[in-house]
Amino acid sequence: MTFTSPDIPGHEGLAAPVLPTGELASTSSAFVKVFVGYQAVCSCGWTDQRRFPATQEGAKEAEYRWWSRHAAPLIAAAPPSELVARSNLLCERVVKLAAERPLAALTLLSQMESWQRALLDLAVAGARDAGASWAQVGEAMGISKQSAHERFRSRDL
Ligand SMILES: [Zn+2]
Fold it and tell me: How far is ligand 1, taken at its centre, from the CA of residue 8, in Å?
């Protein structure tokens, strides 16, 4: 049995059976005859370092490790998929508007820019207040730690 969350597509968790050789099986224990433990893995390549006993409780602990150590931090940093879909749709519509009625697109984009800047400041301040580093802020925005710091440090007082 694997585990997923719609907010982090591309991440499928598994309590992987540990084979007697020490290697991890890529399927659930239902398809493995002999195994000596469980270890949490993800389809993205992430592997937990901790090994749990080859019991039902061990499997549950490995599943929880995928959730607590890998999925939960990713979900916390990922925008909700519903908002990503709406944002992509908005972008497509504005591209179309810019082609058909460029002045209307300019008015709309100027309005969006004014609230986008204010919301960006708000989100950066919230992340910093919650203890996020400049590296984390930069990573979330797809820019370097230095760029994030230079751009927002005046608001970090
Ligand atoms: Zn993953």
Answer: 8
34-68 burial code (b ≥16 CB/10 A, e <16) = eeebbbbbbeeeeebeebbebeeebbebbbebbee
CA distances from 110 to 19, 102, 120, 131 (A): 59, 12, 15, 32
Residue 7 above 90 pLDDT? no
Size of the chain in residues = 157
Residue 117 neighbours by CB under 8 Å, 6+ apart: none
Question: What's the CA gap between 119 and 99, in Å, rounded?
Answer: 27
Interval between CA 76 and ligand 1 midpoint (Å):
14
How do residues 121-131 score in pLDDT, each as one tens digit?
Answer: 999 999 999 99
Nearest Cα neighbor of 77 from 155, 138, 150, 4 is 138
- Residue pair 15/30 in contact by the 8 Å Cβ criterion: no
